[in-house]
Amino acid sequence: MSSKQPKYEYVSTAKLPTRMGDFKIHGFVEASGQEHVALSYGEWKEDDVVPIRIHSECLTGDSLFSTRCDCGFQLEKAMQNIVDNGHGVLLYLRQEGRGIGLLNKIRAYNLQDSGMDTVEANEHLGFDADLRSYDICKLMLDTLNVKHVELMTNNPKKLAALKALGIDVVARKPIDHGITKDNKNYLKTKTEKLGHAFDPHVFK
Ligand SMILES: Nc1nc2c(ncn2[C@@H]2O[C@H](COP(=O)(O)OP(=O)(O)OP(=O)(O)O)[C@@H](O)[C@H]2O)c(=O)[nH]1
């Protein structure tokens, strides 16, 4: 790749009516060919604080209704929060399985079925616990004229990544939604080993 070639590019925008409300969808691509999307709802000015969610792809949770994780619940809740708020942005990053990909996530699930936790399973397969990058968020937010954000997350790495990219993170909004008997242990591991900010009472 030549050093002049941009690492990320904005591609196009279209209307995206959903069950929650009428969003717009904006397409972005990395030089590698990896595609990502942002959804926007409503209007704002450059000085406004915009509620946003950065969501990593989870085919099983987001599209197949899995209760092994909280992903699908959080996605739905974040989109509803944005609509209720009147404006906001969802950055949907196609980094499935914390960056290891769908089939490796299924391998990791197989190991978790035999007793490993989510971090041990990644490491057993030869991956770091979390391989995600949030660098493309800067182009996405600049394209949508978002400079100040309130971030819906329990993950401190997302906050740090946005700050490092020069985004003004005014506040974090917890998104403790979709805790089930099937994902309690997974969320407990994320809290203990990956630094997620879940309040311990949710595991009782
Ligand atoms: N490798 C691996 N990935 C998983 C597992 N369960 C869920 N995931 C992935 O974890 C990611 C979760 O993404 P997010 O919900 O955006 O992020 P998060 O780190 O949980 O942070 P917040 O939800 O913002 O608090 C998705 O890419 C899922 O596919 C698992 O057991 N192993």
From TrEMBL:
Segments forming domain GTP cyclohydrolase II: 12-173
Keyword Transmembrane helix included in the entry's annotation: no
Catalytic activities: GTP + 4 H2O = 2,5-diamino-6-hydroxy-4-(5-phosphoribosylamino)-pyrimidine + formate + 2 phosphate + 3 H(+)
Residue positions of the active site: D130 (proton acceptor), R132 (nucleophile)
Pathway noted in the entry: Cofactor biosynthesis; riboflavin biosynthesis; 5-amino-6-(D-ribitylamino)uracil from GTP: step 1/4
Chain residues that bind GTP: R53, I54, H55, S56, E57, Q74, E96, G97, R98, T118, T153, K158
Named cofactor requirement(s): Zn(2+)
EC numbers, comma separated: 3.5.4.25
Its job: Catalyzes the conversion of GTP to 2,5-diamino-6-ribosylamino-4(3H)-pyrimidinone 5'-phosphate (DARP), formate and pyrophosphate.
Protein name, entry field: GTP cyclohydrolase-2
Gene expressing this chain: ribA
